[in-house]
Amino acid sequence: MPALEFTGYTVEEQRYQRNKKFKTTGRPLDLKPRLTVTTALDGDTINVLLGVHVGTLAHDPFAVVVQLQGEFLYHASQDRAGLGVDTLIRNNAVAILYPYVRALVSNLTNASNDYPALILPTIDVTQVLKEQTQSAKTAD
């Protein structure tokens, strides 16, 4: 049995908003996903809320928001490397949920029938979250 057991996820939010005022410029779109992560611990149960926001109605043809809540069980006796629950959430739980978010964003944007499906890149989620945190601190 692994130290971190994924028991499933639920879709908390999925939203697509079309920007009716957007004018096509012929330039490629630069839609960078912004990730948010919130965690809650209840004994050995860990709930991780992973959100992805893509685009803004101020500058882009659409805005997409997807949020998933994943549930995990932490088995401390199986954590032989001594990583701890925080490291397992940061490095593993979010990485487990990200492919589900990618699929939902692709399906949602494809169903809009305005633009081709947006396929989010595969990323090192831990690194992206670290960079976003550093950028936010620099902006303050």
UniProtKB/TrEMBL annotation:
SUPFAM superfamilies: SecB-like. This is Preprotein translocase subunit SecB. It comes from Levilactobacillus zymae.
